[in-house]
């Protein structure tokens, strides 16, 4: 019996073995194809219900199985799963093309679309029909047979390349370790970082300490270790992922991906991949994104250059360093921050025990959106570290299942993300509630201490939880418009806006308690957190803009002439560069957001959403950060609506006006 092909509500993780995936996915593709065939062969006139809605609800079994598979490939992978991913990705790409290039199906969709004026559709139905029609047109439905065949080849190749890219980055991350046995090399490091490194060494049956490229290990070392040579060693190792002369080199893969994406866009009648992608975003065109980035660059660059000069002088005065390097930034930045604000990240950590922060984010969600979280132990999970919850509203209606996976381990990729195992939708009068998950990589508890978060990790947890709320509070009819199924440059609004509560006294008092004494975080720390929030904001803004500009450059120009990734990247970074070049490092070969995730031609959206989030939070500040009226407007117009209407319309309904960048520039201390 294949557990993936039985009826299940929550994912049956403990029953699944690797050999179940391929037959289950094969069978689910067959089932989905049969559902498509039923739509195509229906002799009745195409209607919204028998075509548009039926197509949206098709493939549910396949979606559930593949979401389990690909989520585990990110959070709990192994060689076997990676091998299966390489085999099934072309099948799925082929299946998607079978739908979008199915002429008879497109004819039915087009027939409904052409008669939409007479159909009296609701705004949500209207949006579904438009998105569906466009997804066919934008994916080749109007192409000749020969061009359709080319498109299939390109899509199949792209799905394999992005998987290979991600596997190479993970392999490079796992391959590096810095093994230290001399106590002197640890000078400057906080006890928690030493203890974690010692436990890692023990796990590997080695003496001393092991540091890796996983963030909870890498970040403290670069921030606190006095030994500059070792900081350099670690930073260079991180910077050359995918850029070494070995089997994990990603240079050719990057070139192949951008060339194929460009070829695909041209085939569909677009000037570039960015023109294709942005047509369906709030920003609409690459020109608009470039203009937006340049406007912020002009505001941020003078501040960034001042901050950098100041930091350079500080390092020179402190340690006689003539030239500040990339591996010095976090180290001297932390020292300077401590001096200016008398604020040490390590001083804050005892107030941010993971369990308390989780309880805090839950109680903020209760105050704002009337949600209640109950930890449960009868839901299957894929690893013992995962926590599982049921979510209810104040009227005891079931809202969602929620999974949270907080610590790094071997088969888990770096970073933090939100995902789901089941989308919300309404069918046959039943509101199917979502199963949502967040995955992070926070410092593990040790023999003597619980998991204590840096303030940065606290904001990360709030960020991912903001995405989770967008998924959990979804209340739409159709799967493809539900939850986080919105424009990429709108999707970061709920996540980024929630981070603001981490800086507010009223919110911090709910959860920032010393793990030993229970003492609430002293107000002087809260004031310092707020004061220091815009510390080096010019440099931070420049850094974020540089990633977005690099992404746009890869995707808005013709890449056919590019031979050296490194030269291309240097040119893209020219306007945003502060630190000297490191010859053996390259950003693009490990830029997973754009070459493995869904952020190609979309990295700018973090900054774009910051404009929205600063503007939105200003509304909360005007009325009170727990103001029920504003929270309800946000829930009803943004969190529950998914992609059912244009994002700017939803935003204006919540805020009463279009967003302006002033709130962001003010918050960042740039005006």
Explain how this protein is built.
The protein has 671 residues and is of the alpha+beta class. Among the domains are: 3-142, Endopeptidase. Chain P, domain 1 (Glutathione S-transferase Yfyf (Class Pi), Chain A, domain 2, Up-down Bundle), CATH 1.20.1050; 176-239, no CATH class; 350-532 and 631-644, Neurolysin, domain 3 (Orthogonal Bundle), CATH 1.10.1370. The protein is 57% helix and 6% strand. The chain is built from 27 helices and 9 strands. The chain has helices at 18-41, 48-57, 60-75, 79-100, 103-114, 123-137, 145-175, 191-203, 215-224, 228-239, 251-267, 273-278, 286-319, 329-341, 345-348, 354-369, 455-472, 488-499, 505-511, 523-532, 537-556, 565-572, 592-595, 605-623, 628-639, 647-655, 662-667, and strands spanning 178-180, 209-211, 371-375, 387-393, 398-405, 417-422, 425-427, 430-432, 435-439. The strands form 3 sheets. The chain has a 5-stranded mixed sheet. The longest helix has 34 residues, at 286-319. The termini are far apart. The model has no long low-confidence stretch (mean pLDDT 95).
